[in-house]
Amino acid sequence: MKCVKIMKSYIKTIYSQWNWKILDDLSDWIVEEAIRVQQIPAPTFDEKARAEYISTVFNDLKLTDISIDDVYNVYGRLEGKSSDTGILVLAHTDTVFPADTDLTVKRNGNYIYGPGLGDNSMGVAGLLGLAKALTDEGHQPPCDIWFVANSCEEGLGDLKGIKAAFDTLKDKISAVVNLEGLAFGHIYNAGIAVHRLHITATADGGHSWLHFGRPSAIHGIVQLGAKITALDVPTQPRTSFNIGMIDGGHAINAIGTKSSLWLDMRSVSPKALDNLRKKVYALINEAQHDNLRFEVEVVGDRPAGSISNTHVLVQGALATLAEMGIKGALEVGSTDGNVPLSHGYPTVTVGITRGGNAHRLDEFVEVAPVKSGMKQLITLALATAQYYTDQSK
Questions:
Q1: Domain interval for residue 252
Q2: Statement to judge: residues 183 and 316 lie in one domain
Q3: Is residue 271 located within the same domain as residue 352?
Q4: Cβ atoms within 10 A of the Cβ of 209, count?
């Protein structure tokens, strides 16, 4: 409780003393920066062009130790008064949309529409905006702040970017603030476990009339899928599954020789997730025989982790919102925060603005909340840096 009081005192001091007059120009800059980022295609595994652009912005903002690693994470450091520790602020650069997606942006009053604009171009712009606010004001934080625009958060990226970035920086940081563009007012302090499988069935095949009755890879995969969808999963702890894609076959009159499905399984409990995984493997083993064979590839394994609702970092994030008269909502989800949380590092995910229709072509962001989102971020980042600097002494 004493730690929380200390953190809240830092927040009140920063909130009352910081030059918030900069927010008008800064929020306009962030909105335009989000659009600039959004206009650079960055499907998962193909974030290079966006990473190169962000690197130039890091350079313009006079960050140091700027680099791009082999998975297209972009690193930059703002040197603090103390080198005893540091904090990490990050936002993912990748998007769910293919490189040839029409990225045209449309404005309608307080709303701006564009694929990937909220998730997560606005998060990246908030990251850049924090660096700009601190450097423009000539503010040296209490400890180093590492800024990372990381890759591979979406889909089959399997958090490859943050896994690499965390491995690089884990000895230099004490806490993590992760940014999601559309999450303003929400604070994620727990990451759910996610396990993803690509299950492939193969068979000898043949002609649909002449060889009717032979095992079909397509029949086998849809029958397996039906059995998976009939599985019972607990509501407490919350557990889910989804067959997101099915593919295979080469002709309507040919018995399928190859077919596959992609299965996403999630739970707030690693044990419950493991129980579900075992049930799926049991179904696969039951379905398999000499003329119908199954192969399983693990294509995603996101670790789980959490910090208590009463943790100083969570209470600090709530307090920054409370200073603006906003009651924050605690959330559980799957974000880049999963990785540091799974290693026991205090981590929260916060947002820059509000919006909707994420992962759809008509995705949109609201402009007005950006000021509040940045007020929260600046306050939380500096208070967190101060708290962990003092703790390291």
A1: 193-302
A2: yes
A3: no
A4: 8
Tokens describing residue 305: 């982790």
H or E segment to which residue 291 belongs: none
Positive or negative torsion for Cα 318, 320, 322, 326:
negative
Q: What CATH number does residue 201 fall under?
A: 3.30.70.360
Looking at the fold, whether 148 and 266 belong to one and the same domain comes out as: no
Tell me which residue has tokens 């499907």: 43
* Of 266, 269, 331, the residue nearest 301 (C-alpha): 266
Q: Return the amino acid letter for 71.
A: V
Query: In CATH, what number is assigned to the domain containing residue 341?
Result: 3.40.630.10
Are 263 and 364 in a shared domain?
Answer: no
pLDDT, tens digit, 9 for 90 and up, residues 67-125:
999 999 999 999 999 989 999 999 999 999 999 999 999 999 999 999 999 999 999 99
Q: Report yes or no on whether pTM surpasses 0.70.
A: yes
Q: Of 339, 333, 337, which is closest to residue 303 (Cα–Cα)?
A: 339
228: Cα within 13 Å, side-chain hemisphere:
26
Task: Give pLDDT tens digits for 170-213.
Answer: 999 999 999 999 999 999 999 999 999 999 999 999 999 999 99
CA distance 116 to 80: 33
C-alpha to C-alpha distance for 321 and 318, rounded to whole angstroms? 5
Q: With 80 as the cut, is the pLDDT of residue 393 above it?
A: no
Exposed e or buried b per residue across 57-79, where buried means at least 16 C-beta atoms within 10 angstroms of its C-beta: bbeebebeebebbebbbbbbbbe
Q: Do 100 and 48 belong together in one domain?
A: yes
Whole-angstrom distance, CA of residue 69 vs CA of residue 61: 20
